[in-house]
Amino acid sequence: MEQKGKSNTKIKRQIKKKTNVVLVETINQARKHRGWKNVVDILTGPTRNYSMLNLSEIDKKTKEGDTVIVLGKVLSKGELTKKVRICALSFSEKALEKLKKTKSENVSVLQEIKINPKAEGIKILK
């Protein structure tokens, strides 16, 4: 069963509008792998569709050991009480400090695509 989403032509057109080099590289890497199709659809769209999640929201929506994708920025409000792997486009400085304290792993979405090309065990948070 084929996943529904944007056509390759539309994706290519939308990528041309992006000015962030890292974002374009992330999209291009994700396009190479079927499991990342949902991520490509969101990242090629307008930035207003990106997420801004606080650590407290991530804590509520996850369980110990989860790998979560935040297609946007992770903010520092609240605390993270469990060890999770967070992959995001960006992190606020205070959020990074709090993540170090909880020993949770934080990586960019691009790094996660390279490590996990089949997108196994990931959970996209909005």
Summary?
The chain has 126 residues and is α/β, with parallel strands linked by helices.
Molecular structure report:
The model has no long low-confidence stretch (mean pLDDT 93). The two termini are 25 Å apart. The longest helix is centred in the N-terminal third of the chain and has 11 residues, at 21-31. Helix 2 (21-31) runs antiparallel to helix 3 (37-43) and helix 2 (21-31) runs parallel beside helix 6. The protein is built from six helices and five strands; from the N terminus they run αααβαββαβαβ. It has 126 residues and is an alpha/beta fold. Strands 1, 2, 3, 4 and 5 form a five-stranded parallel sheet that branches.
Radius of gyration: 15 Å
How far apart the termini lie comes to 25 Å
Residue fraction in strands: 15-25%
What is the mean pLDDT?
A: 93
Task: Give the proportion of residues in helices.
Answer: 40-55%
Give helix and strand order, one letter per element, not per position: HHHEHEEHEHE
Major sheet: 5 strands, parallel
- β-strand number: 5
Number of helices: 6
- List low-pLDDT spans: none
Overall shape: it is globular
Structural class computed from helices and strand pairing: alpha/beta
